[in-house]
Write a structure and sequence with these properties.
about 160 residues, alpha+beta, four-stranded mixed β-sheet, 3 helices
């Protein structure tokens, strides 16, 4: 008499390993793509911030006949700082680069022409206009690093350049 084999229930170890490997490959692809999207989003935020800052600096120039010094732009004390008082149209968050966590009453502005991705560089001209006296800065260049391009330095100059 022939006996019927009992039907198997469940999966073999080979089938389970194949499924795990496929899920791992898909997860790696998704994570890699997601990190690229995040870098591009932060770069877009940097461009938007720099354009906003440059626009407000041009408005300031139109009202005052000169650009501010770096020390002016670094005074980000809420409600009473130079930025809030003299650049009322700017969002305070535009002065903070993505991934930066500045100290209280500060922002991401530095004097660096090749800033890291978590800072913005502001270089007014002529070189001696940033000596604290102010009032004679006739142009500026804003710098930022493009994360999606190996932190390549980007710049935006004033209209008076």
């Amino acid at each position: 008499m022939l006996r019927k084999k009992a039907q198997q229930k469940g999966f073999t170890i080979v089938e389970l390993l194949i499924v795990i490997v496929v899920i791992g490959i898909l997860a790696a692809l998704v994570l890699n793509t997601f990190s690229g999207v995040q870098r591009r989003a932060r770069d877009t935020e940097r461009v938007t911030d720099v354009n906003s800052i440059a626009t407000q600096l041009e408005v300031y120039y139109g009202d005052n006949g000169h650009y501010p010094t770096l020390a002016n732009l670094q005074d980000a004390t809420p409600n009473t700082g130079w930025v809030d008082t003299n650049l009322p149209g700017i969002d305070a968050q535009a002065m903070i680069a993505p991934n930066d966590t500045p100290a209280a009453n500060a922002n991401s502005m530095t004097s660096d022409a090749t800033p890291p991705a978590d800072e913005y560089g502001y270089v007014p001209a002529p070189a001696n206009c940033d000596n604290g006296a102010g009032g004679n800065c006739t142009s500026f260049t804003l710098y930022w690093a493009k994360e999606d391009d190996n932190n390549a330095s980007q710049s935006k100059s004033s209209l008076n350049q």
